[in-house]
Specification:
By secondary structure, the protein is an alpha+beta fold. Among the domains are: 284-378, Aspartate Aminotransferase, domain 1 (Alpha-Beta Complex), CATH 3.90.1150.150; 401-471, Molybdopterin biosynthesis moea protein, domain 2, CATH 3.90.105. Helix content is 36%, strand content 15%. The strands form 5 sheets. The protein has a 7-stranded mixed beta sheet, sandwiched between helices. The protein is globular and about 65 Å long.
């Protein structure tokens, strides 16, 4: 097998070259505790290729990733899936003015639509009863959305692909719920429309039969994977895959050059390459071990009375529900962190999410199991009222995002905003899915949900000292 990027960096680190080039730390161990890391941190010097015009070792690394995911083209991303989503949406924006997106897409998709002055049309996920989870995007719901757009047009003769630039869905969701990407791809392709899949949380898909296939093999045209989320790679690393003839490779590369740094980190790129190599060589064996640990954990969790694990997620996620107990998801999150030194990925109204990867150890499962059994034993039988969930919200779109986000605004107390128009995104972080999008009308139900999260210690972006931005009334 060819040498990877890390091997080339090691050779350069151990050579007698003197670095009269960026970065300023010059690879010196005197740079503090990060000195050893700095010895691998270089710029585009001779022999190390260029991310934006790859011809040798970076090109080889991208080809290696494409082979693993069975993609026609694969690009390294060094500013995460955000850069990939911005580039993917921008690359198709010339096709038409409307973009269909799942309402539970990450805010980066909304930002891409705003930057390209696109009109958003929503398809809503199903709600999983009993768990307060957003479910899958169904083929029938998407078909209804497409047909509604076509039948509402004054120009009945315009083809779908001249009205709708593309479709964007998230699969799996932050909570580990997958959609029928194969069925969705067949549907949108029948209209001549490209499909973008934000599969940031599914970089491990297709590497083991117990996991769903990856969206590349299911027929999506553009697929984004966050390597750092579920594979052993540094934060900020991701991949973008392109397939088929409905998207333009040159346009995509143009936007990758726009949205990515002109000085990409070799540490991050080497991290991507190493993760790909490890997944190639050891992925199946490591995922087998992970599944064994997970099965043991689930067997022990059957002894809980109030806490339960959602059985509908892909195996890389644990959605730990306290819907039937006396605490909120945020309270469980804090107890696990402060009392048991277990840091969860995120908290929602009635559950917390744990991310599992091929690097997890048995110790972690045992500690989590012990903690949850102990918490469950101490939990009261009945909860005083359900935690509020934002999953069923369908705010009325009063203004398009492309218009509302640039309008003058004023700040108001959250409780006084009923009937006003949002001027800023409001979302929990994580997962970064908007509760409100600029241009949407604020309902009493929405206010209650925002106040619940804010008052119960959740991180709510778009709210500052119990105030939010609303569009100034037009005079």
């Amino acid at each position: 097998m060819k040498k990877g990027l890390l091997e080339y960096l090691r050779e350069y680190r151990d050579s007698d070259f003197y670095p009269f080039h960026m970065p300023g730390h010059k690879g010196s161990a005197e740079s503090g505790s990060l000195g050893e890391m700095y010895r691998y941190d270089i710029t585009e010097i001779d022999g190390f290729d260029n991310l934006h015009e790859p011809k040798s070792i970076i090109q080889d690394a991208q080809i290696r990733a494409a082979k693993l995911y069975r993609s026609e083209e694969t690009y390294f991303l060094i500013n995460g899936s955000t850069g990939g989503l911005l580039s993917a949406v921008s690359a198709i924006a010339h096709r038409a003015g409307k973009l269909i997106i799942a309402r539970n897409c990450h805010k980066a998709v909304y930002h891409a639509a705003f930057l390209n002055h696109m009109e958003l049309c929503y398809v809503y996920p199903e709600i999983i009863a009993g768990y307060d989870l957003a479910g899958e995007i169904t083929v029938s719901a998407l078909k209804n959305t497409i047909e509604k757009i076509l039948t509402s047009s004054d120009e009945k003769s315009i083809a779908a692909d001249k009205m709708i630039a593309g479709v964007v869905i998230t699969s799996p969701t932050y909570d580990g719920i997958s959609s029928d990407v194969t069925g969705i791809a067949k549907l949108v392709h029948s209209y001549g429309i490209p499909l973008i899949v934000d599969q940031a949380h599914g970089a491990h898909f297709g590497m083991h039969p117990a996991y769903p296939p990856n969206a590349v093999t299911e027929g999506a045209d553009l697929v984004v994977h966050s390597v750092h989320k579920t594979l052993p790679a540094p934060t900020q690393t991701a991949l973008l895959h392109r397939n088929g003839s409905l998207t333009d490779g040159e346009r995509l590369r143009k936007y990758l050059r726009i949205y990515q740094s002109s000085s990409p980190s070799y540490l991050l790129m080497a991290g991507i390459d190493q993760a790909i190599k490890l997944a190639e060589e050891e992925g199946t064996e490591r995922l087998n071990q992970l599944l064994f640990f997970r099965d043991q954990f689930l067997e022990e969790m059957k002894n809980c009375r109030h806490i339960c694990i959602c059985p509908l997620t892909e195996p890389g996620k644990l959605v730990i529900s306290v819907r039937g107990g006396s605490i909120t998801g945020q309270e469980l999150y804090q107890i696990l962190r402060e009392r048991y030194r277990l840091q969860m990925e995120m908290a929602s109204g009635s559950y917390v999410v744990a991310i599992l990867s091929m690097m997890d150890r048995e110790e972690g499962f045992k500690r989590l199991c012990h903690a949850l059994l102990e918490i469950d034993e101490q939990m009261e039988e009945k909860k005083a009222g359900d935690a509020l969930s934002w999953m069923g919200l369908h705010p009325e779109v009063h203004l398009q995002l492309k218009d509302a986000y640039d309008m003058s605004y004023m700040e108001m107390e959250v409780g006084e905003t009923e009937g006003k128009i949002a001027a800023e995104f409001v979302n929990l972080y994580p997962p970064g899915i908007p509760l409100l999008v600029p241009g949407e009308k604020i309902s009493r139900e929405c206010i209650k949900i925002i106040e619940f999260y804010y008052e119960n210690g959740y991180t709510v972006y778009g709210i500052d000292q119990n105030k939010m931005k609303v569009v100034m009334p037009l005079e």
